[in-house]
């Protein structure tokens, strides 16, 4: 999925203001100004459009974990230089302190049914023989289900 779209959807789910979004970026050691945020949220065909880099989005997701769960006792985690749907999905799961059953229920709200085994394949090490890449459809269904859950 496109980082800009995913960021916009996550911020919409939690009804984050622009100030809150900038604050979450800061918690992930990535500074984004209000002007940059405006450029990130405009349509792709707008001449002021700015693509959100993987390292920037990883900073936001790390900041979201700190925002939702508090700072960790261990060393701070550096933002990943390269993201994929599996990493995004896992960071959202961690930020929201979701267990497998919670994630499965959220996915079902988004009209996708997975078993615990299928779900765990997304969170395995990339070199594990049962690792599976998370498709855009699965991540989108998770975000849709999360939106439905938070509206209740």
Beta strand count: 0
Radius of gyration: 15 Å
Instruction: Please identify the structural class as seen in this structure.
Output: mainly alpha
The low-pLDDT segments are none
3D architecture notes:
The chain is mainly α and 152 residues long. It contains eight helices and no strands. It has helices at residues 3-13, 18-27, 34-41, 54-69, 85-95, 100-109, 116-120, 136-151. The chain is globular and about 45 Å long. The mean pLDDT is 96.
In short:
The chain has about 150 residues and is an all-alpha fold. About 55% of the residues lie in helices and about 0% in strands.
Task: List descriptors.
single chain, 152 residues, mainly alpha, 8 helices
What order do the helices and strands come in, and which of them pair?
Blueprint: H1 3-13, H2 18-27, H3 34-41, H4 54-69, H5 85-95, H6 100-109, H7 116-120, H8 136-151
Helix pairs in contact: 1-8, 2-4, 4-5, 6-8
């Amino acid at each position: 999925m496109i980082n800009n779209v995913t960021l916009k959807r996550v911020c919409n789910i939690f009804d984050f203001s622009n100030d809150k979004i900038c604050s979450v970026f800061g918690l992930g050691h990535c500074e984004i100004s209000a002007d940059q945020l405006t450029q990130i949220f405009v349509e792709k065909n707008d001449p002021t459009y700015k693509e959100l880099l993987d390292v920037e989005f990883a900073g936001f997701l790390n900041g979201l974990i700190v925002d939702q769960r508090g700072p960790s006792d261990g060393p701070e985690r550096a933002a990943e230089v390269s993201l994929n749907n599996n990493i995004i999905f896992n960071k959202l799961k961690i930020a929201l302190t979701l267990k497998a059953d919670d994630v499965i229920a959220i996915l079902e709200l988004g009209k996708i049914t997975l078993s615990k085994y299928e779900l765990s394949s997304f969170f395995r090490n990339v070199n594990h023989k049962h690792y599976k890449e998370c498709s855009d459809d699965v991540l989108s269904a998770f975000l849709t289900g999360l939106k439905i859950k938070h509206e209740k």
